[in-house]
Amino acid sequence: xxxxxxxxxxxxxxxxxxxxxxxxxxxxxxxxxxxxxxxxxxxxxxxxxxxxxxxxxxxxxxxxxxxxxxxxxxxxxxxxxxxxxxxxxxxxxxxxxxxxxxxxxxxxxxxxxxxxxxxxxxxxxxxxxxxxxxxxxxxxxxxxxxxxxxxxxxxxxxxxxxxxxxxxxxxxxxxxxxxxxxxxxxxxxxxxxxxxxxxxxxxxxxxxxxxxxxxxxxxxxxxxxxxxxxxxxxxxxxxxxxxxxxxxxxxxxxxxxxxxxxxxx
Length: 265
Hints:
This protein is an alpha/beta fold. It contains ten helices and seven strands. Helix 3 packs parallel to helix 4.
């Protein structure tokens, strides 16, 4: 799938900062038309300028993914502006970290409403447009937390694990439709979620030593490369043994996580 400004456009949610902004700029380098969706208008405008400086075209559409009506209106308006939809990158998310007993009902609700329901709601809004412009792709930014548990991760991992389960079902539902479904499960990424909400110091000691922190730009390039084929990608590659260990030997992995200090204060 060739992404150029003269072809069908793209849409990125959570585009005001972090991975979303990096994805938008990466698409700008490929001369795409990019509809930008997020809550913060000033930062969306800054992203739009960065996309255009990179060689693409961009327009901001303000919406909170928790507001279904506003989200659908933003997606529809973005697609109308871009002339169609070839690629939707669903990225809007929030970091919620802490022992389950310490999380407030509002924090738990936010984790599920944004990281699960908001993501799936975006996919629902985008799918009719993607079906209309096949071949097309839906790429979702999930998390390694969906696969590897850690103390303090219940709120964040709940949304991301549910998201991955839903995407596996969706990939089967769309088989043969011309719409590719892919999702990234990145480990630690140098964004506000780590800086503000999930401090790097509370991540597993072994992970801090062996698995590098990813840049948002590296994740963005991976998202664009994943688009044509879909499927799951765990990154960085150093995390693959940890993910396989957690999936295939969960009891032993649990002991190792306790020993490693995963998520401890």
